[in-house]
Amino acid sequence: MYSQDQGDSVKRLEELKVKIFADGAEKQGMLELYRLPYIKGFTTNPTLMRKAGISDYAAFAREISEAIPDRPLSFEVVADDVAEMERQARLISTWGAQVYVKIPITNTNAESTCPLIERLTAVGVKVNVTAMLTVAQVRAACRALHGTPGAFVTVFAGRIADTGRDPVPLMAEAVEIVNTVPHAELIWGSPRELLNIFQAEDVGCHIITVTHDVLKKLSLIGKDLTEYSLETVKMFYSDACAAGYTL
Q1: What is the C-alpha separation between 183 and 104, in angstroms, rounded?
Q2: The pTM is what?
Q3: Over 50: is that where the pLDDT of 7 sits?
Q4: Which of 27, 102, 216, 217 is catalytic?
């Protein structure tokens, strides 16, 4: 049975083995996070970049690559045709030794990109296979990654949870599969809450990508629950007073 006392056993941030990558596309925010030693890498995607108002993809990516030269950076291809994906992937890989090219596991026609991943791996391109939600996809990606100089395998655990399924068993199985591929690491993608960091830690996941909103909650790790309860009560009361509510 769960008890409040269990809150005292929460690992501290510096005790975590899972690496925290910041997920976003706002340049100033990325550079501020770069100053934090516990942020071990960065990921982004076209959706985040569009939300950030980025109009020149290549210029943004090159600026970030120059500003953050010593931590992994993942930039995604923006094509749907496999041949064009390959051209873009080879271009993106020239932006820095720390750059990983994000390749979705299929294109929009559900055509597997594993042959492309295998070709890129064979010529030394570091890839981040992304948008995966099934164990079968993880197995297929890992078969294509044998011989990789370095690769990330990203499973969108948060999206799995959005469907009402528990992502933890799937991620635990994915860890075992990815561990068979030298130089490959599993990423827990699309986390929804701070708890996901500890779930990723518990199953042995290598990396978790964390949005800036969730990163803001890191100071809450291990917080005394009784104290947090009192702060919540004070917040409700303060807001009621500020609104001038009466009954």
Answers
A1: 19
A2: 0.94
A3: no
A4: 102
